[in-house]
Amino acid sequence: MARGDKVYAPPEPLDVGLSQIHELRQIAREAVANAARHGFASRIVFTVDPAPTAFHLDIVDNGNGGRVTGSSHPFKPRSIAERVAALGGKLDARCGPAGARLYITVPRLSA
User: Fold this and answer.
1) DSSP code for 14
2) Cα separation, 10 vs 25, whole angstroms
């Protein structure tokens, strides 16, 4: 991770299955790559919140959401959306002048 990036996670280990943790890690990797490569972000903050039945990942950056100035293309990280859907989860993707935010909820699978 780049200097200034942060990860907020619970202090105890997360109980998650191997295939699910692999997909969640891939989503996080892709979010960082997209924020840097397409959104020109210099800061990314990850928050992981394990609820009893779901994981909530909140990924916030200070980039432009991959928009080109003057572009009317909507902000939609297609590959991340596909991964979240494959996990049975939901993705709320937003971007604005202050940056982009991905709020991801996926149901917990037992380890």
Assistant:
1) P
2) 16
- Amino acid identity of 96? G
Q: What pLDDT shows up at residue 8? A: 63
Strand 54-61 vs strand 99-107: parallel, antiparallel, or unpaired?
antiparallel
Contacts of 77 (CB under 8 A, 6+ apart): 30, 31, 34, 66, 91, 93, 102
Contact indicator for 15, 110 with CB cutoff of 8 Å: yes
The three-state DSSP-derived secondary structure of 74-108 is CCCCHHHHHHHHHCCCEEEEEEECCEEEEEEEEEC
Chain mean pLDDT for the chain: 82
pLDDT for res 68: 54
The answer to whether 60 touches 41, Cβ cutoff 8 Å, is no
Scanning the structure block, which residue is given the tokens 């992981």? 48
What is the mean pLDDT of the segment spanning 62-73? 63
Helix (H) or strand (E) holding 18, with range, is helix 18-37
Enter the pTM of the model: 0.79
